[in-house]
Amino acid sequence: MPRSRRARWWRATTRPSRTRCSPSRGRSHEPHRRFRSPQAARCGHPLAGRRDRRAPAQAQRSGELRSAPSFGKPLAEAEGWSETPTEFRLPFKILKNAGVPPPEIEMFHQRAALREQLAAAASDDERRAIAARLSEVEQAIALRLEGMRASGRL
């Protein structure tokens, strides 16, 4: 093997592999794909994301977006979104999508139910028992939130 070929082979095997795009080699950026590959995103070729940029404009010109029932209307806000502290919105959304209610929410529901029971209670003994359970739940909520503040999660 000539020395220059051996040197090229050695350099090619010892360097980290890089995907390069080169319009001079006749390769395009996979025009059949809708989204750019990570290699095309790193590449500085000016036509790399051309199709990605054209698709929304073309859909708008053709009227495809106007046919959607929600076109021009604000998105529906999820129930309780504005009352949820901003620190909890993303974690609660993830748990909600997974079908798992967070323990804090369960405590808030218990507190609301106990308050309704307290308002509807007929006797003093029943009110005292419900008030004691309500104070326990409120104390648990306060401790949980204080722990979150101390750990920096709130």
TrEMBL record:
Pfam families: DJC28_CD
Entries under InterPro entries matching the protein: DnaJ_homolog_subfam-C_membr-28
Stretches assigned to the DnaJ homologue subfamily C member 28 conserved domain: 58-119
Domain of life: Bacteria
Residues covered by region (Disordered): 1-82
Bias (Low complexity): 10-25
Protein name: DUF1992 domain-containing protein
Species of the source: Piscinibacter aquaticus
